[in-house]
Amino acid sequence: MVAPVKAPLPAEIRGPLPARTDELPFPLNLRREDAGALHAQLARQIREAVLSGLLPGGTPLPGTRTLARTLNVTRGVVEGAYAELLADGTAQAQVGRGTRVRDETPVPAPEAPAGATTVPAWLPDAPPLPVDRPGGRPGIDFRAGVTGTATLDRRAWRQAWADAAREDVSGDYGDPAGTPALRAALAAFAGRQRGLGAQAEDVLVTGGTLHALNLIVHALLPPGSRVLMENPGYRAARQVLLDAGHEVIPVAVDVDGLIVNPDTPPARLVYVTPSHQFPLGSRMCLPRRLELLDWAARHDALIVEDDYDGEFRYGAPPLPPLAALAAQTGAAGRVLYLGTLSKVLTPSVRTGFVVAAPPLHARLVRARTLLDFGPPTAVQSALTHLLTGGHVDRHIRRSRRWHAQVRAALTTSLDGLEGLAHLGGIEAGLHVCLHLHPSLPAPVVAAELATQGVHVSTLDSYTLGEAPNALLLGHGGLSAAQASAGGRVITQVVRSCATRAGLAPYSDA
């Protein structure tokens, strides 16, 4: 069908075009100054009359000459409108009967207030997101999961994007697994930083940890699979598993990480954060790691190792990733290693990676292709420049010193809480846990801190069941001065709460 040409109006006509109500039982209002073509305006108004029930099924429409003369427009305008109505099924045409509203007229929708949006009745309200809102709260915000960019080499950053912009622009989709250059750079990076012997063909570039986990649970797990999860654990990861229809079994953690013993139930998959357990901060000891690999072999299960901030260690010797241990013990296909550049550089790059054995990798690439055809090539090019130029490694060394100073300032400011609280998870990562005396409820302390402009989280939303009585202190986005100032307020508030609880006469609170 040839699209109708918009017909010009006579120069003397201004404003709404007149319509005679004896032709149609409602007024037509065509406006030459509107952006829409006249035939589209006419078709829309007739269609709305049909959908509202004003023109029932079978109602004849005026002839094109008659309606054109009534509206003082060319016949082509009416013919174009009728062509649209015939094409979308609003009208039908028969020889000898002319054009009329289709007999099977739709049932008019219930009248809704102007501007209202209707959705299917079966669609439930969206549940709340298990993540903190972007942006910090006024004051000192010990928000976990963020990192600062104070140590970022801005010159190298700008140069990497400039180099990426000078590259040729392809008219085709890229490799859904990621560009070969970035995959090779990430494999080498994981080898240098974490001792992981990965090859470029083992790497899949993702949009971050949660994106990787979504790919894994949809591509590798049968519907309704049982999955073991650290408790307390990463709440967003838990929700990804639940939203995908899988059964989440909480497993307790202690100072040595996920507790694995003969009573650990079988499952298809287990999700762990062995380098710096989230949120308690413990490191999974080597015997426990070997026990977990043995559990996976016995139950024919997969392990997702989320190494979200394993690059940041403070005096503690690095432990080999589960993926590296699995390769040494002949179980490399059991572990999917998740890395991210969000903590290393900035979350704004939205880039992470999965290291997986070929059979798993192929399934993940298929899922990535069907999801979005792969990551954007410009971002990959810039990150490749940063990785291959040594800028990321230098940035990590600077950041490690920076975060070590912040951590030291925070822990020093909390020294006066002996007997009332103790710190956990201080050997690595970008957050610590302040475990409180049982007589000092964490929600009460957190609420009082908020009134002082210091914002912390409790572990309630991270835990299925009774939560540990602790405060989560993320220091990745703070300076040493901010961490120290916030720590002093925490000390004062905890002492004040302790005095009211009758634990000690801290009159200096």
UniProtKB/TrEMBL annotation:
Signal sequence bounds: none
GO molecular-function terms, A-Z: transaminase activity
One Pfam entry name: GntR
Domain (HTH gntR-type) ranges: 36-104
Family matches, as PROSITE patterns: HTH_GNTR
Assigned keywords, A-Z: Aminotransferase, DNA-binding, Pyridoxal phosphate, Transcription, Transcription regulation, Transferase
InterPro entries: Aminotransferase_I/II_large, HTH_trans_reg/aminotransferase, PyrdxlP-dep_Trfase, PyrdxlP-dep_Trfase_major, Tscrpt_reg_HTH_GntR, WH-like_DNA-bd_sf, WH_DNA-bd_sf
Stretches the record annotates as Disordered: 95-125
The family this protein is said to belong to: In the C-terminal section; belongs to the class-I pyridoxal-phosphate-dependent aminotransferase family.
Descriptive protein name: PLP-dependent aminotransferase family protein
Organism of derivation: Deinococcus aquaticus
